[in-house]
Design a protein that fits this description.
CATH superfamily: Alpha/Beta hydrolase fold, catalytic domain
Structural class: alpha/beta
Mean pLDDT: 97
Number of strands: 8
Order of helices and strands: EEEEHEHEHHHHHHEHEHH
CATH class: Alpha Beta
Distance between the termini: 20 Å
Radius of gyration: 17 Å
Number of helices: 11
CATH architecture: 3-Layer(aba) Sandwich
Number of domains: 1
Strand order of the largest sheet: 1-2-4-3-5-6-7-8
Length: 292
């Protein structure tokens, strides 16, 4: 494993990546985290089936330690921009080892689908976990999207809310319950503590104006029309009680894909990897086994 993130310069944009088992043969796996998270989301407790796989955790644009260029404004954030920066980053990261399998959670799932639609030659398979095609969220994240679209006052509320959420690691952990339908399962997941230990310091260093751009622009983004262009086999995993991204989004995506397989986890919310840990990892391991 690389001890420090590798920084990738993509024009004026900078991405960050962690690399694991890079000497292993086979199809590289690229993991994409969700909104306000980081590359460390995937590094806390890697599953056993990754021990002999070459895999990377790649940042979404603008998520620490990735950066937007100076002078970046929210109107510049589009599905096309997100996809194209990631496409360039993936090509730089894996070189001739492409094509890759993309595995994304939430906004990472959206981004994986967007990349697969715009660069089908680069992608052998896609896994979208709690992903979406239409970027209008519900629950706590939906409220933050409302703040982001309310001018100066909204910006102040957005910043104040995020400062409160990240004030201490204990508060940050407590706030995770807004993502869950099965709170007991979430906080019983043995992977949660090591994951929080890694992602909390990164959350404290997020550029909040970069996050504001996402929360302001994502409700305007819809890649439904792109989905028929995704030729790679795609596994969709969602919780049927997701309070942030409606499970109907995964159903919609499945209807529009050429080769989509939908797994709906009963009683799970936005974090099925914790709320239905065994089922989630069994489904993912079984699907990945098709692509050694």
């Amino acid at each position: 494993m690389s001890s420090d993130p590798r920084l990738l310069q993509i024009g004026a944009y900078q991405l960050a990546a962690l690399a694991f088992n890079v000497d292993q043969p086979g199809t590289p796996l690229i993991f994409l985290h969700g909104i306000t998270s980081s590359i460390q989301f995937w590094a806390g407790a890697p599953a056993d089936y990754l021990k002999e796989r070459r895999w990377y955790a790649l940042s979404l644009p603008g998520h620490y330690p990735a950066t937007f260029p100076a002078g970046f404004t929210p109107d510049l954030l589009t599905a096309e921009l997100i996809a194209d920066v990631l496409i360039a980053g993936i090509r730089q990261l894996v070189g001739e080892a492409a094509p890759v399998i993309l595995i994304g959670h939430s906004t990472g799932g959206f981004a994986a689908l967007a990349v697969a639609a715009r660069a089908p030659d680069l992608v052998q398979g896609v896994v979208s976990v709690s992903g979406f095609a239409v970027g209008k969220w519900s629950g706590a994240l939906g409220i933050s999207q409302g703040f982001a679209r309310e001018g100066v006052v909204g910006r102040l509320l957005f910043h104040a809310n995020f400062h409160l959420v990240t004030l201490t690691q204990a508060i940050y952990k407590a706030v995770f319950r807004v993502y869950a339908a099965d709170v007991q399962a979430l906080y019983s997941d043995p992977a949660l503590a090591p994951t929080l230990d890694l992602i909390y310091p990164y959350a404290r260093r997020l550029d909040l104006d970069a996050m504001l751009a996402y929360f302001k622009q994502m409700p305007l983004i819809d890649i439904t029309e792109w989905l028929p262009n995704v030729s790679a086999p795609t596994l969709l995993i969602a919780g049927d009680h997701d309070p942030i991204v409606s499970p109907d989004q995964s159903r919609l995506i499945a209807r529009h894909l050429q080769l989509g397989m939908l797994v709906m986890l009963e009683g799970a919310g936005h974090l099925p990897m914790s709320e239905r840990r065994d089922e989630y990892h069994a489904d993912l391991a079984r699907w990945l086994a098709q692509y050694p």
